[in-house]
Design brief:
binds zinc ion; two-stranded parallel sheet; about 40% helix; TIM Barrel; single chain; about 300 residues; alpha/beta; eight-stranded parallel sheet
C-alpha cells in the first residue's frame, strides 16, 4: 500500500504583484505574490492533496486514522497576523474552499508591535543616508545606491538583532512613527471577521513575537498564556493551536506550551512528516515559497508504492 506523509504548510505575507515589485529585498520564505500562492494551491489540487484544518489533522492523528497514510493531506497555516492575510489570502481560500489556521501575534491588534521590515524599508528607501546613534556610537549608512540600500537593510537588521530585545526598543532606536505601520497588522475587527469565516481557525503566536528560548520563565509563560486568553476573550472561542516564533523552542518552551493548554504547536522547518512519528508540540512544517517544488507522491512516500 502507498503510504503518504502529512504536510503542514507555512505562509506569512501574500502580496499584490505591485507591492512585491516595490520591495528592495525579497524574503521568499515570508512573502509571495497572490499568483504564486494560487499556483501552489493549484499544484496541490492537481496532485490530489486533501486540504484539512489543523483541528481535523489533530483529530486524525490522535485517532491514528489510517486515511492519513492512504491519501496525501495538507494543512495551510499563516504566521504573525498580517492584514494581507485578510485582504489577499482570504479571498483565495474562499474561492478554493481551503481551511486554514492563522497564528496571531496579539501584539499586532493590541498595538504593542509593528511589522519592522516595512519600517526599515521605508527608512532606507526615502533617505539618501541613514544615521543611527546606538549606545553613543554613531552608525552611518550610505543609501545613495540600490546596493547601498540593500546592504543598509541587512546592517540595520543585524544591529537591531544585537541591540534590541523588544520591538518597542527597535522602534525607539530607529525613531519610527509606529502609528503609520499599524495597518500592516490585523485589527481585532479583521480577526473577528476571519474567525466568522468557517474556513479559518485562529491560533496563537505569542504576544510580542520573541525568541521564546531566550526568555525568563515568567516572560515565557506570559508569551504563551496571555495571547491564548486574549484571543479567547475577543472571539469567544477556545484557542488550541500555537506556533513558535522563528520555530525556536526547547524542552522548557515545549513543556510550557503544553501546560498553557494548546493541543498542538508547530515549528518552521522539517517538511512533510510521517503520521506514525510526530510530536504534537513540535509538528514540522513545509515553507510555502514562490516556485515551490512539490514533493511527488512517490518520493514523499519513500516506501511501497501501489
Ligand atoms: Zn512569526
Amino acid at each position: 500500500m502507498t503510504s503518504y506523509p502529512v504536510m503542514i504548510m507555512m505562509f506569512h505575507s501574500i502580496l499584490t504583484e505591485s507591492k512585491l515589485a516595490s520591495r528592495l529585498i525579497s524574503y521568499p520564505r515570508q512573502e509571495m505574490s497572490i499568483q504564486d500562492f494560487r499556483t501552489i494551491i493549484q499544484g496541490l489540487r492537481s496532485r490530489d492533496y486533501q486540504f484539512i484544518s489543523l483541528d481535523e489533522l489533530h483529530t486524525r492523528l490522535e485517532n491514528q486514522d489510517q486515511d492519513l497514510k492512504r491519501y496525501p493531506f495538507v494543512s495551510f497555516t499563516f504566521d504573525d497576523g498580517y492584514t494581507n492575510n485578510y485582504t489577499n489570502a482570504l479571498p483565495v481560500m474562499e474561492e478554493y474552499q481551503i481551511p486554514f489556521t492563522l497564528y496571531l501575534t496579539t501584539g499586532y491588534p493590541d498595538h504593542e508591535i509593528i511589522h519592522m521590515s516595512e519600517a526599515i524599508e521605508d527608512l532606507v528607501r526615502n533617505q539618501a543616508g541613514v544615521t543611527l546613534k546606538v549606545e553613543d556610537v554613531t552608525h552611518t549608512f550610505d543609501t545613495s545606491t540600490l546596493a547601498g540600500k540593500i546592504q543598509t537593510i541587512r546592517d540595520i537588521e543585524q544591529l537591531l538583532a544585537q541591540k534590541c530585545s523588544t520591538v518597542q526598543e527597535m522602534v525607539e532606536l530607529l525613531k519610527i512613527n509606529a502609528e503609520s505601520y499599524r495597518h500592516y497588522g490585523l485589527s481585532w475587527e479583521q480577526v473577528r471577521k476571519l474567525h466568522a469565516q468557517p474556513l479559518c481557525t485562529i491560533g496563537a503566536h505569542t504576544r510580542t513575537h520573541p525568541n521564546l528560548t531566550l526568555l525568563s520563565e515568567d516572560d515565557l509563560e506570559r508569551e504563551l498564556v496571555e495571547p491564548k486568553a486574549r484571543i479567547e476573550e475577543q472571539l469567544g472561542t477556545v484557542v488550541n493551536h500555537f506556533s513558535y516564533p522563528y520555530g525556536r523552542y526547547n524542552d522548557l518552551v515545549r513543556e510550557k506550551a503544553t501546560q498553557a493548554g494548546y493541543k498542538t504547536a508547530t515549528v518552521t522547518r522539517g517538511g512533510p512528516f510521517i503520521p506514525n512519528y510526530y510530536d504534537l508540540y513540535a509538528l514540522p512544517r513545509e515553507c510555502g515559497i514562490p516556485h515551490f517544488q512539490f514533493p511527488e507522491h512517490d518520493s514523499l512516500a519513500g516506501r511501497e508504492v501501489k
